[in-house]
Amino acid sequence: MDFQKYKEYFNKHDMFSVNNGMSLTDMGEGYATVELTIGETSKNYMGSMHGGLLYTMADVAAGTAIVFCGKQAVTLTAHTEYIKPAFSGKVIAEAKMIAFGRTISRCEVEVRSEDGTLYSKSIITMFITDKDIPIIETI
């Protein structure tokens, strides 16, 4: 699989991620990073990055970390611990696969600032379907 081509495709066509300011910055077999810069639309009424967006970054990173298998995957369960609020700057979600099977994959995801401040930590379990990822055939 050409990870660079997939990353370029994802960053143009995953409109949910684009509309939420996220971009896929790195990926490989069992690994992915997603970044965003906190803006006004990223914040809750208390002025910090919305926890749902922290979770969403983790979910996108985990899902992308298993793209190499060529099959569509969906989240089964996710456990997220919120450690510290994020108020400004770049936020980076780094997913690392910790288990991979025929139908189940599990990733550990840490969301941090550029200087390494930990904002959240997640364990995300995904179900790997038997459906091919259509875009992989074209890149």
Structural topology:
Blueprint: H1 3-13, H2 15-19, E1 23-28, E2 31-37, H3 51-65, E3 71-82, E4 90-100, E5 104-113, E6 118-132
Antiparallel strand pairs: 1-2, 2-4, 3-6, 4-5, 5-6
Description:
There is one protein chain. It contains 3 helices and 6 strands, in the order H-H-E-E-H-E-E-E-E. It is of the alpha+beta class and 139 residues long. Strands 1-2-4-5-6-3 form a 6-stranded antiparallel beta sheet. The mean pLDDT is 94.
Query: What value does the average pLDDT take?
Result: 94
Helix content: 10-25%
Structural class by secondary-structure content = alpha+beta
Query: What oligomeric state do these chains adopt?
Result: single chain
Unreliable parts: none
Largest sheet, strands/sense/barrel: 6 strands, antiparallel
**What is the helix tally?**
3
> How far apart are the first and last residues' alpha carbons, in Å?
8 Å
Strand order of the largest sheet: 1-2-4-5-6-3
Beta content: 35-45%
The rough form would be described as globular
Q: Work out the number of β strands.
A: 6
What's the helix-strand series? HHEEHEEEE
What's the gyration radius in Å? 15 Å
